[in-house]
Amino acid sequence: MERAMFFLDQNEMPTKWYNVQPDLPEPLPPILHPATKEPTRLPPPLFTEAANDQEFSMERYIEIPEEVQAIYRTYRPTVLHRAFRLEKALDTPAKIFYKYEGTSQAGSHKPNTAIAQAYYCKKEGFKRMATETGAGQWGSALALACSFFGLECKVYMVRVSFNQKPYRRILMETWGAKVVPSPSTDTDIGKKMLAENGEHPGSLGIAISEAIEDAAKNDDSKYSIGSVVNHVLLHQTIIGEETRKQMEMADAYPDIIVGCIGGGSNFAGQFLPWIRDKLSGKKPDMRIICVEPMAAPTLTKGPYTWDFGDTAGMAPIIKMYTLGHGFIPPPVHAGGLRYHGMAPIICHLYKLGFVEARAVHQVPTFEAGVQFARTEGIITAPEPCHDLRVAIDEALKCKESGEAKTILIAHSGHGHFDLAAYDEYLSGRLQDYEYPEDKVKEALASLPEVPE
Ligand SMILES: Cc1ncc(COP(=O)(O)O)c(C=O)c1O
Predict the structure, then answer these.
(1) Who's near 423: CB < 8 A, 6+ residues apart?
(2) pTM confidence score
């Protein structure tokens, strides 16, 4: 019998998150205060103390609190699959594995950090969390986590997704969250954006600004972010830590790891526990491929520079590859990948040459998603359809070269609420969007000036 699924028992679930910071060859650049432009912690009124400590921690392993582990155990460990049927359809000698995070209650990897953040918020005595969401996956995860810990939850949902995905809103409301389309009339920045354009499609950057403004104005609230910052990537490393054990069960080691990047959290959660083998020189040839949409090609087309994490310039300034904080990406279906910047840890590793990046158009990603659905059965969210495209391309290269490479896909979630996008693809209405060079140039003109 050839095993197609690799299970860990609940008592084998890792009990520590892995922090890459002590293993980086050069330290990360500092985070800068948006007004003073001096190095700063994350703004303390917005974030919990625990999240702030983890953001800058130099401890290699950080204990997962027992209360967080107990909730992780409602859906973890997740399964590592071997994609035999896809391999056969591609007629490739490559071995394709995928770690599937779509079995969490919210349907993606996002609860891994939402649960931790809600736990620390409750523990530090706060009652409410405010956040943004793009595709609705992150908002769903925080709504779920807040319901587990008895916290109120307010979600600013990017308007284009709010309109495209009413079922995600209903999911969040079922878990007890209040959801508004962003830009909204609930904040000053939202009102300003709506005054400029009553039909504003919104962006993650604007929704972040709204959630930050909300948390800053409410003393009983903390802001929660679903990606980009170090502590979020840290919480996601449970994925890669589990996968390492499962790949060992499969007697396999990845030659190539592929994942989509919006702010970078799911993919970093998978690859950081592996990259330490590359950083230490043990596995110098392992390839780590970050996949982004052509519509928001941050690593492949953006400069590495200082920029605000949000549109209004309220979030800290971070050094990252960026398309400019004012950039509004075209409304592609992979809503979670429509962000102007990228996790500083990923940018740093890309700059140092430890990870690669590739940008792909949305039509070929859905083509890969449909091929995956018709072989492995899973309906994939538009974001990880990007991984599938590149993984399939790499497997087809193996077919040409005859190499039996091991490819590991960081499959971040299901697409059960994205069927309208599949419908567009299947009916031939789905379009690609060219990289909007002019719009990026315009947005890059307003980068903050930071003395080097
Ligand atoms: C299923 C899924 N994958 C990936 C992403 C991209 O975010 P990140 O790069 O932080 O994993 C999202 C964001 O919403 C998502 O919902």
Answers:
(1) none
(2) 0.96
